[in-house]
Design brief:
Elements (H helix, E strand, L loop, with lengths): L1 H13 L3 E5 L8 E6 L7 E8 L4 H11 L13 H8 L3 H14 L2 E5 L5 E7 H7 L7 E5 L4 E4 L4 E4 L6 E5 L11 E5 L9 H7 L12 E6 L7 H11 L9 E3 L10 H13 L4 E6 L5 H12 L8 E4 L11 H16 L3 E5 L30 E8 L7 E3 L8 E7 L5 H10 L11 E4 L2 E4 L3 E5 L2 E6 L1 H19 L7 H6 L4 E2 L30 E2 L1 H15 L1
Parallel strand pairs: 11-13, 11-14, 12-13, 14-15, 15-16, 16-20
Antiparallel strand pairs: 1-8, 2-6, 3-5, 3-9, 4-5, 6-7, 10-22, 16-17, 18-19, 21-22, 23-24
Helix pairs in contact: 2-10, 4-5, 7-8, 8-12, 9-10, 12-14
């Protein structure tokens, strides 16, 4: 009877026609359905509606031109105001969506200044009305005891909105497993890698970030940054520097448990990035795919934003967010790149993806999402072959994520190097997508990183260690250029001399040595173009930016 009542409401408000927007959610390993959610328990969600943007092809043309170092319009990215004019949907479309949401009973409505996202709070009752009663909430329990309510059997919206709304999220997805790999935690522990070691290894000159430089990390999954841990780390391991976060966007609990991921990200982004003004974007709703878009919406909702962003999260399975959401977040990254933001993302810790912790790939080689999005910098991991200096190889303590995307095609800037690699390397006896976007783009040391977490010195590893360190390098390069480099991939691929080639190692599973990609001369699907040589990077950037100015 309750379902009939909801359906009757929907019919009276919008007519009887509802259409499916999102298909069923794939339930991750470790979660078990426990039955229909008891609505008397209440519950609410931070909901995000993604409206179809205008002029998406024009946005792509702008970023492709502005990021090409041989273009006469090199580094001429779109301003915040220009982006608003480009992508804003018609006002009538926005009004139609708002009418639907208000009639459904949502609250706390916020319309993005570019009109491409609408944030709101919604109860289970409101979401049931908004979807026409076609979909029910169910309870899911994780092996560790966590319980959540989710609508997993698809999402319906009024049919007249299908050509306006691209995504309707925040209540259908699940968390992912965290990516950092702790080795040990002890007050006496010291890793082999710290900011001084990174600067020595990659010839990074010790410098202060340029005036006006802004950088950020994104944190999810209940992670928190502790200001006290960051301060202690910079005193102990970054030449007694005074480090502090300039701005938090979203919830960050200083009294809660600090996260190894967030402490690693902030400590190395700030240290390598010359203690630039650093922000933290925090989204904690535990719906990872929706949280990614929520984060992207927050970045572009203010006219002042970071020029470099580091993301150390991902899922190494095929199409983990569904086609519509995966495409939308890729568009979000392209939008940020078009505004001159460099987005740097960890390439994953599951190697070739043949065998992963969640066991979802069935022998298919799959890189990590979202690092396989073409408009980001995907960062893999290396370590020294012996000792703490000299030649490096692909990390052996975990699999440095890399391969060829099933969700996004190879980017123009890398098609030639992919063809060369696939034409010369030993091809694994597995399924893979030879036309997909190749990852990683670059690599750095990714083992034995010293961090401070909960006032304790710890040692961690992962591509989530390499990533904020490389993002800090981009912040320094922006200062050398005098303006944001934005989408830096075309510059890097046109100038491979900026990197030291890694030719030793693979990302195959330890027990299945044939089922992965091998490092070799030139770009490869283990270490990308290689590890940074900062003095060469500096010279290349000066030359490229000199022409642009």
């Amino acid at each position: 009877m309750q379902a009939f009542t909801v359906l009757a409401f929907a019919a009276s408000a919008y007519g009887s026609s509802f259409s499916n927007l999102h298909t069923q959610t794939v339930i991750p390993k470790g979660w078990v359905e426990k039955g229909v959610f008891n609505s008397s328990k209440g519950g609410g969600f931070d909901v995000l509606v993604g409206l179809k943007r205008s002029n998406v092809e024009m946005v792509k043309q702008i970023v492709d031109t502005a990021s090409d170092p041989v273009s006469p319009k090199y580094l001429e990215y779109a301003s915040y105001e220009e982006m608003a004019k480009l992508v804003s949907p018609p006002q009538g479309s926005v009004d139609s969506v708002l009418d639907w949401l208000r009639a459904s009973g949502v609250s706390n409505i916020f319309v993005h200044p570019h009109n491409d996202y609408i944030h709101c709070s919604a109860s289970i009752e409101a979401l049931t009305k908004a979807t026409g009663g076609h979909n029910k909430f169910k309870t899911f329990r994780h092996n560790d005891g966590r319980e959540i309510a989710r609508m997993t059997d698809g999402v319906h919206i009024p049919s007249h909105l299908v050509d306006i709304v691209e995504t309707f999220t925040g209540f259908t997805g699940f968390p992912i497993e965290k990516g950092t790999k702790p080795v040990e935690k002890t007050t006496l522990s010291r890793g082999k890698v710290n900011p001084t070691v990174l600067r020595q290894t990659y010839n990074i000159s010790k410098r202060t970030a340029a005036a006006g430089a802004r950088q950020a990390i994104a944190q999810f999954q209940g992670e928190n940054v502790h200001d006290s841990d960051l301060k202690r780390f910079c005193i102990d391991f970054n030449n007694n520097t005074d480090c502090k976060i300039s701005k938090y966007i979203g919830e960050n609990d200083q009294g809660g448990v600090a996260g190894s991921e967030s402490m690693l990200d902030t400590e190395y982004l700030m240290s390598i990035g010359g203690v630039a003004e650093t922000w933290v974007y925090s989204v904690q709703s535990m719906d990872f795919c929706s949280d990614l878009m929520y984060f992207a919406s927050n970045v572009t909702s203010e006219s002042i934003y970071p020029q470099v962003i580091s993301i150390s999260y991902g899922a190494q399975v095929k199409n983990p967010c569904g086609t519509e959401i995966g495409a939308r977040f890729a568009e979000d990254i392209m939008k940020m790149s078009t505004m001159g933001i460099t987005v740097v993302i960890a390439s994953g810790d599951q190697g070739s993806g043949w065998q992963i912790d969640s066991d979802d790939n069935s022998g298919t080689l799959v890189p990590s999402f979202p690092s396989d999005i073409p408009y980001c910098v995907a960062v893999g991991s290396t370590f020294w072959i012996s000792g703490t200096s000299g030649e490096q190889e692909a990390t052996k303590s975990f699999g440095s994520g890399g391969g060829f995307s099933y969700d996004y095609p190879a980017a123009d800037y890398q098609k030639d190097v992919i063809a060369s690699y696939l034409g010369s390397t030993k091809i694994p006896p597995c399924n893979y997508n030879k036309t997909g976007r190749g990852t990683p783009d670059v690599a750095m040391l990714g083992e034995s990183y010293t961090i401070v977490e909960q006032n304790v010195t710890a040692v961690v590893a992962g591509t989530s260690a390499s990533t904020p360190a490389f993002a800090g390098i981009v912040t320094l390069l922006n200062g050398i250029c005098g303006k944001p480099l934005g989408f830096i991939n075309p510059l890097m691929y046109k100038n491979p001399q900026m990197f030291t080639d890694i030719i030793v190692g693979s990302n195959a599973p330890k027990l299945f040595k044939e089922d992965g990609w091998e490092a070799q001369k030139g770009w490869d699907a283990v270490s990308g173009l290689g590890t940074p040589s900062f003095n060469v990077m500096e010279a290349v950037v000066k030359a490229a930016c000199g022409k642009a100015n």
